[in-house]
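User: Just a sanity check before I run the rest of the batch. Below are the structure tokens for the first item. I only need the designed sequence back.
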């Protein structure tokens, strides 16, 4: 969806057309959900967080500035909600460790299943990567997810996370270095 379409839809919603908001939800539900899933490792939590993001955005739509990207604004709302959720869960590292253990257990079960070896190895790599991703500190995980799972530029990462461009680059770099170390 281009920026002009976003502006038209938001203007319609602000004038009372609640149905128009469904167009924004439809356009952005997948990336918002994917961000929440990559950050939490839990489908139910990701679904709840995505829904909360769209509710929060709807309630605060009047605050969106038409000279800014709606998607970046929405992603910032989503990321802030995820951060708050992870803090309430007694820290993201604890949740990540619990989830990582569950993925490792599932991975061992998959190895025992009767699957072709090539598929099993690729699946194993993906599971290990997800385990390692969940073990990263939240700020590094955010940057890596935004860069490599959502294909965001460093400038977009900086705006979404509310940090400088150099900090965004550094977080991605540090996240990758930690992931490499964990994967070895």
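Assistant: Here's the designed sequence for the first item:
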């Amino acid at each position: 969806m281009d920026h002009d379409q976003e502006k038209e839809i938001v203007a319609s919603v602000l004038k009372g057309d609640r149905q128009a908001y469904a167009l924004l939800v439809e356009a952005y539900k997948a990336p918002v959900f994917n961000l929440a899933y990559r950050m939490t490792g839990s489908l139910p939590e990701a679904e709840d967080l995505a829904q909360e993001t769209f509710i929060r955005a709807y309630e605060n739509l009047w605050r969106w500035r038409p000279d800014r990207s709606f998607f970046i604004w929405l992603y910032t709302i989503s990321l802030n909600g995820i951060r708050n959720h992870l803090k309430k869960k007694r820290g993201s590292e604890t949740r990540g460790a619990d989830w990582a253990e569950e993925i490792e257990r599932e991975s061992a079960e998959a190895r025992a299943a009767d699957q072709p070896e090539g598929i099993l190895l690729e699946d194993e790599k993906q599971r290990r990567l997800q385990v390692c991703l969940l073990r990263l500190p939240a700020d590094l995980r955010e940057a890596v997810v935004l860069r490599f799972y959502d294909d965001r530029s460093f400038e977009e990462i900086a705006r979404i996370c509310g940090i400088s461009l150099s900090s965004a680059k550094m977080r991605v770099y540090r996240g990758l270095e930690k992931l490499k170390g964990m994967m070895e």
